[in-house]
Amino acid sequence: MSMLRAAVIQLCSTPDRDENMRTAEGWMRAAVAQGAGLLLLPENFSFMGRTEAEKICHREDPEEGPSLAFLRSFAQQHRVWIVGGSIPLRVADSDKMTNSCFVVDDLGQVQGRYDKIHLFDANLGGETPYRESDAVVAGQRAVVVESPFGRIGLTICYDLRFPELFRALAAQGATLLTVPAAFTQTTGQDHWEILLRARAIENFSYVLAAGQGGTHPNGRRTFGHSMIVEPWGALVAQCPEGPGFVVAEIDPQRVERSRQRIPSLNHRVDFNG
After folding, report:
1. Ramachandran region of residue 85, left (φ > 0), alpha (ψ -120 to 50) or beta?
2. How far is CA 138 from CA 35, 88, 134, in A?
3. Angstrom distance (rounded) from CA 72 to CA 211
4. How far apart are the first and last CA of the chain?
5. Residue 50 located in a structural domain
6. Domain that holds residue 39
7. pLDDT of residue 51
8. pLDDT tens for each residue of 100-119
9. Which of 31, 102, 155, 237 is the most exposed place for a label (fewest CB within 10 A)?
10. CATH number of the domain bearing residue 137
11. DSSP the chain
């Protein structure tokens, strides 16, 4: 496994897919210019609909959609790996969609796809209730992708609150955990950083988190504060509010050293056995 520079890209996406991809491309090019070889985009990077129903109307083909084509073209042109946030995808024989993250390698080839497992159905009080399950079909499988710089474990947004998923990814050898998100301002200001740092410490893994950040056309405000956390739990890079990116070094040996110092992953007890 080799050292690399990784970037988390922060956006404030709109219902205009073409505009969103142009904006994303600008920040991605800037990150590549700073040496980034792995890019993480936020949840719904290419289309942030005003409602879930609007997202359904803009579902994409799982193999030939414009957002995936954009990711593949950029990765091939710039010779970088991309964890592509999430894209709303059509589901065969269904009027719903999946909330899906693709991993694309530096040749523009798809190396993995993860469908969001935990769907955000919540009433935060003072806000319109969230009912992601009304429009989205939940995934059923934890996904880890092989890469030259370690195994990448994939999650999306609300998955962050379920440590058992992250532990399952670590058990499959993941050393780098990705969290594209669109955390609300309400929950983000209280829980975002502490949850990300906890997931890093629990699994002695790098955590890369790319969020939507800002006020969107429907008035929804997302928290942003995209960040990179190293395996001992230290925050090594963080975006300020608004669109942008940060870059940090990823050292696979840092994971190994942390796991050797405290071998808690080897001391787990299965209480369901």
Report:
1. left
2. 35, 12, 11
3. 21
4. 34
5. yes
6. 4-262
7. 79
8. 999 999 999 999 999 999 99
9. 237
10. 3.60.110.10
11. ---EEEEEEEB---S-HHHHHHHHHHHHHHHHHTT-SEEEPPTTSS---SSHHHHHHT-B-TTT-HHHHHHHHHHHHHT-EEE---EEEE-TT-S-EEEEEEEE-TTS-EEEEEE--S--EE--SSSPPEEGGGTBPPP----EE--TT-EEEE--GGGGG-HHHHHHHHHTTEEEEEEEE--BHHHIIIIIHHHHHHHHHHHT-EEEEEEBEEE-TTS-EEE---EEE-TTS-EEEE--SSSEEEEEEE-HHHHHHHHHHS-GGGS---TT-
**Average pLDDT score over residue span 92-96:** 93
Closest CA to 238 of 201, 175, 188, 272: 188
17: CB partners within 8 A, 6+ apart? 46, 47, 58, 66, 67
Residue pair 121/128 in contact by the 8 Å Cβ criterion: no
**Nearest-angstrom CA–CA distance, 102 and 73:** 13
More confident residue, 74 or 131: 74
Active-site positions?
43, 116, 157
37-65 pLDDT per residue, tens: 999 999 999 999 887 788 888 999 999 99
Q: What is the mean pLDDT of residues 205-230?
A: 96
Overall number of domains in the chain: 1
Residues 226/9, Cβ–Cβ less than 8 Å: yes
Report d(CA 149, CA 47) in Å as an integer. 29
51-65, 179-193, 205-219, 238-252: which has the minimum mean pLDDT? 51-65
Radius of gyration of the chain (CA): 17
Residue 273 lies in a domain: no
pTM of the prediction?
Answer: 0.96
- Asked whether residue 230 is assigned to any structural domain, the reply reads yes
